[in-house]
Amino acid sequence: MSKIRRGGHSAEGETLSAGRVEYLEAARARVRTRRIRRTVVIVAVLTILVLFATGAVGSSIARAKDLVDTAVIALAPAAGWPQQTGITDPDAVAQMSGSFVEMGGDSCVVYSLGGTRLNSIQSGYARPAIAAGKTRFVLYNRSGNELRVESRTQNLYTKTMDSTISLCAVADAGQVAVVTDSTDSVAKLTVYNSSMQQQLVWNLTSEQGTPLRMAFAPDSRRLAVAAVSAVGGQLTTNLYVLPLSQGDPVCLGSENSVPQWMGWMSNGFLLVLYENRAVLYNTSGGSAGERASYDFGGGTLVSVSNTSNGAALLLSNGQTSTAVLLDGIAQRIEEELGRPATLVVTGGLAKYVTPLCRHPLTYDPELLMKGLALLYQMNAPQHHAGGGKKRTCPFVPAQCVPAAAPQCGRRQAL
Which of 241, 320, 328, 403 is spaced 20 to 30 Å from 147 by Cα? Predict the structure, then answer.
């Protein structure tokens, strides 16, 4: 076959017909098309292999499932409230995007905010616990080594760890942090990406402590860890921020108290609630550390609600509780007696409790001393051996002295 050149001429210079030229051009086009297709297939196969190797495919599938869940929640008819969730004694409730998860015993249910039941799980765990992110949550066994990563409508992953799980946290982007026991260190912290592939491992020493609280930053790029250690017989909390991409943990400070709650106000500020005060930490740059604090003033933390702009704390005041207790006691005494009762209070905090009580109270700061003086006068000899004058107590009013006091030398326990 002769070699064909462009321009409608053969290798010998013969002019080709128009039909022949058209045929040859079509043949060249088919060859180019086959080469392009083959190149596209090769590139697609290589791309899929890279995506599978990096876990991007699993992450994309999980994101697609989250989008499907969002669509299902948005399109599902709202059943409304109230609803019987089937859990009579809730142990934990966590909010997610457009829904919430409720756990009681080994049962766990997910409801939309409109009242539609989305998911139901019977884990069979002996000590179940949950940790929730934006679109998924982790249900794990604190006396075992299994955890379940659940979306709002279905199970995504089930993973068995090498040792017992003590704590978990979930990021809004789907990463999961798991704290387990370790034979080589005090605790082992492992972070998995959204497709449950290992991202980093941190083996904590005895000086660093055991993680008690964890919280992902809103951008899911950092993890705050509050680890508790025993120093000189006293519990100390060490607060760290762990970058997930690279770098070592950054210590923000230490506190001689156990953290009750921890959460991010924004990507740069972290709020930690200890037993007696709230501390706001700056986590960015060279100024990382304590930024501000608020003392509870003797109150006890009951609940907290936070947003990116601030937090609301519900504190239980011991004085108010005492006032309610006194009112209840006074009411029952009066019901038993059938007539009003007079109550006298004393003590260092009595002057603060008295204004909070609804029942009338008489505050006497020296009531204890008066009682001791009365006991002394009733039991001590009333005359000197030589016939001296009768002893009187300047602290006790005359009307408080019993008419028939014990005679000299006699002692009576009151």
Answer: 241
